[in-house]
Batch of 4 targets.
Target 1
Amino acid sequence: MDSQALSRDSRIERVLIPERRIRERIEELAAEIAADYRDRESLHIVGVLTGAFVFLADLARALRRAGAPPARYYFLQAGLYGNSVKTAADEALPSTVRIGPAAGESGELAGRDVLLVEDILDRGLTLSRVCRHLTEEQGVREIRICVLLDKILTAPPPEIAALRRALPVKYVGFSAPDRWVAGYGLDAAGLLRDLPCIVALRESAFR
Ligand code: IMP
Ligand code: MG
């Protein structure tokens, strides 16, 4: 993408991960996943909407190229109630995760091992809630999580650190700094999901 055009956008501070690097990393992740699941008959992949739609679209095709077992795809919607751009100061604020139209409602995921794909792990509230939903309400047997980004929190409260530690995160694309990022599916107040790269935002532009 034209970095001149990006640098003219006053909401964007800088490119954190360029498009090419994302593409390379997805091939690596797909190879790793394909190897780990090579003995399986099939894969059951659950994507978390909305943010994971770009990542999963690319990962799905990379998995096929990597020779992964045949995969079925399911989506559920999960979202945090609250502000549209979080800052480090919001860390301790409780948020509620709502689960929307859910994957595998007809019981297809019961007893299955699921690869759960999400755009970013931040405080872990969304993934914890989604895991609980998949396990308790859909009867999923085992969950492995794949995130494109893992946000390295600077000073998480102990309960957030514990929540994150408890998650079965097996595949991570990149570490991200503890700030608001956007692009490649991730939004800034609903926008910028269509950027082909990951950018750091100027949070002041969203106040
Ligand atoms: P968590 O529940 O605190 O881990 O936050 C994860 C969810 O919040 C993800 O599903 C994202 O949709 C969203 N999110 C967290 N951090 C960012 C960010 O920096 N940019 C865009 N979305 C984010
Ligand atoms: Mg999300």
Target 2
Amino acid sequence: MSDRYAVFGNPLGHSRSPMIHARFAQESGQDLSYEKIEAPRSGFKAALRRFIAEGGRGCNVTAPFKIEALECATRLSPTARIAGAANTLCFDGADVFAENTDGIGLLRDIETNLHVSLRGRRVLLLGAGGAARGALIPMLMAGPEQISILNRTPAKAMALRDMVAEHGKVTVIGPHEASGHDLLINATSASLSGTCPALPDAAFEGASLAYDLCYGTAGGSPFLERAVAAGVPLVADGVGMLVEQAAAAFELWRETRPETADLIKEMRNK
Ligand code: NDP
């Protein structure tokens, strides 16, 4: 029987994970199955226990279960611990290892696919929700000069800064301090509602990359539209991150790294 994997979430109608992992499995010759499990909102832990008992080898976890996924783990990666959330679990007997590959995927897309190094750069991170939390430690490991966090609710940005303070220079800023950054990363969910986080035009001046974690929004990304209008030379949505976070999970489970470039190109062109 094929090794079983799954993605847990609710709702899952939109999830592209089964397609991505089927493609990885096919191209790397791995014998596995990958299914969607739309657990009831109050029933994640029971559904996960059942999946493990039935022989599941690992899973991805998406909204709203990423925090509960962490609570189910017996071991946490440092990234998952600081993010306070896991998007990937690996099962080995009684051992449940939790990782958060969102930030790993973001970094890989920016540095490897888009050829933009964070080393020595000034980074503006918009947002302080789950995705921003997952991204911060991998971003700090890449050696930026500093990361400024700007969030609609400043207290959340401050709490996040305090959690990672020992790992690098992180400051919390307001919109009026948003200029002078090389790389702009929108980790808010504003694009999902067709808006751009409150930012002055000066925030886009001189930036070399604008990246929006959102992808596939019918109305596009107002943030990326503003970046293009302001002359930012490189803009990208979160499709590359989506594929790369899946690739990092696949590598953790199967100890082989799947090819990602063609799939990202195909998904971007759809
Ligand atoms: P959360 O709900 O945890 O956090 C949302 C964040 O966005 C908060 O910081 C919130 O601010 C801010 N926000 C929401 N609406 C607005 C607005 N109108 N203006 C300014 N700020 C706003 O979401 P996640 O962190 O999980 O996800 C964020 C985005 O990242 C989503 O669009 C998601 O699709 C995307 N994502 C993409 C991935 C990929 O693989 N490409 C992976 C994971 C996420 P406040 O604190 O004030 O509420």
Target 3
Amino acid sequence: MAALALAGALSCSAPPEPTFDEQVLAQTAVGHTLPRNFLLGVTTAAYQIEGGNTASDWWSWEPGRFPTGRPHIAEDARSGRAVDSWNRWTEDLRNLRSLGANSYRLGLEWSRLQPSGPDSWDESAAWQYHQQLEALRAAGITPMVTLYHYTLPQWVADRGGWEAPEALELFRAFALRAGRRFGDVVDLWLTVNEPTAVSVAAYGGGLWPPGVSDNGRALVVLGTLVRAHAVAARALHTGDTADADGDGRAASVGFAHNITLERPASGAWLDSVVASSGDQLANEAVLRAVLTGSFDLDIPGAPSVHFVDPSLRGSLDFLGVNYYRRDRLRGDLSNLGRPAFTVPTDDTASASDWELYPQGLYDALLRLSAFRWPIYITENGVDDAADTQRAYVLRSHLWAIEQARAAGVDVRGYFHWTLTDNFEWHLGYTAHYGLFSVDFADPALPRTMRPSGHVFQEIARNIGLR
Ligand code: BGC
């Protein structure tokens, strides 16, 4: 009897596992449990959309080739005009409004604002950013602004990029200036986008500038980026003293952390080892560092990195979570630092071979809630030119958020990656993440809403935003 009662009590208190069935979700009013002040928006990154950012390290990287002869950018593409958003931002704003978004995450391109050195400042560019931010506010769209989304001014790269002794000071000064100049229209800030992704791709895998293939250096740069977040967060709080939305807080600062579910590809011991160290690297180490002030990484195949920096503690007002996929990892004893990825063979694989796994967002949110930061999903999306998966991606990840909130997790917003197709880093223009497609053959770069844009609108309606 007692055992039965206990079983009953347990089953009452444990939240039911949500279902992510596509047919069921298509019949569900996804979003209807979210409050009106929930932020529903899209994310962009300055370099990927603006065009003409010629003073950046990416600009000089693009025309190069890897030692194998492969071009740095797929199909030898250049960012060039990108989608010309610098000149077409009013059209982009119209499209944002048509989606029913009440928020927009966008980037400031450091190399545009400070094109030639620490004392340079392009006030006409600053003026235009300010105009955009004001226009967003006037349209009832809350901006969230990213300071560093993978691109450095060339003059910073020339000094050694994130490995330069003065890198933290240069970033701090930029953040202070950004806070002062845009603080009257911005309250939500992200310092660094995906510290792990950029350190691994640029310094470990040699895929992005500066093209270094050294896991040890990548881990050191990761630690530097966590510290860059902390110094920029302090500078933003100093520089931004204007409360743009009147909620009593002039600035809330986070960074966007790419959370990836790292799972073993099989029951083999080695697969579990690489999955667990992958989890340390991708997810845990950075969060522990900002929680405790102690950065500790012991990854097979790379020298350990440990340091204590008390200023990391308390540097996060909220956590930005970029969530796209689950990885299934296979270890290889002869190359422990580079586990292989198993690509799903069913329709859970995106065109970029990322495994779509919305349940993983739910699981990650429950795990992250232990850290007690408010959470925004600052990116989620899919490479899907044919638009056959995006509707499900939207519904299922918003559903995961609703279920996590019902289980007590403080999730305050969702930003979809991305508004229009754009320059997708090393993939050039071969990946398609936009709610709007872009006709790159037409010099006017016309944007057309994909059918999944209507699902975004439907979710906005279910929240009560349209
Ligand atoms: C990055 C974006 C990128 C997207 C899709 C994210 O992790 O922040 O810049 O375009 O992934 O690859």
Target 4
Amino acid sequence: MTDVSVPILPPMPDVLRRAADALRRGDLVGLPTETVYGLAARASDAHAVARVYDAKERPRFNPLIAHVTDRAMAETQAMFSDEARCLADKFWPGPLTLVLPVAATCTVCSLARAGLDTLAVRVPGHPAALDLIAHMGEPLVAPSANRSGRISPTSAAAVADEVGPHVELILDGGRCRVGLESTVVACTGGPPTVLRQGGVTLEALAEALAGARWRAPVLGQVRDAGEDQVPTSPGQSLRHYAPDAALRLDARQAEPGEALLGFGPMTATLNLSAGADLAEAAANLFGMLRALDRDYTRIAVAPIPPQGLGAAINDRLRRAAAGSGGARASASDAG
Ligand code: TXA
Ligand code: MG
């Protein structure tokens, strides 16, 4: 249910100032990005970061992404290899997160990094996020603004639903253009390793690296959520992005009592993209799952082609299906 008491405001200059004041006081702000909405705090403020973990009910061994204005700010926080620079210059601002060795000058608190000696950094591709970070002059952590293990919010109203009581205000940046979280790539020695699929496709990564004659990226091993080891990147946790409804994948049609989430020309309760456009489907995915989850207890999902953004969409759907219908583990390690 939407928390109507939390202000949802357009990112005008006076609102950005108010958001910056709140962050400086150690409060949290709902932040639009091009991927999904984030729950923002000052990355250097361990108390504020602790509030982020609490609001998300997120385990503290799951590190956060530091959001910066540009590569120059990122280089004050983390150490870039040539491959990392190549990827940053190609995809920033945009849906790419780089996991890099932490720099000596890093100001991101250790709690945000979950004590690791690496840091995840990203330059978000949304003007409101860039304006707010520029105003602050320092990195903001912004995990997806959902409670841990649930669907990421792609609208300001969904942020209010998820974490409304915990934020001072929500900047309304409209619906998220990409709709899937950023692709997480580790450049920490060895070939670049994809830890989470997302808004930048594997094909685009491979092409960027091949163009510069760097090593091809490898897909990080997806660990099972049942493993008691800390996952390499907790976004890989199998129980993640879960609606309350039970999900049935690769469905050609709905069974009685099921909603059908379609793709391509077909009769469906909601259609991710009637024109079979994967970018449109990605942008609609979380919002439509959220909408169907409100009205149905069972959701059938049409097959999605595996190439391009389809890989990340299918990844999220598999995790949602694994964690849906009350099958979610209580000690979820999702983010
Ligand atoms: O698109 C996005 O990335 C969104 C928007 C708001 O920027 N943020 C987001 O944050 O999805 P979050 O916290 O929900 O997911 C961050 C992912 C997690 O899977 C986390 O485990 C991984 O990045 N991560 C963060 N720091 C890491 C590190 N040092 N090593 C490996 N994985 C890391
Ligand atoms: Mg998340």
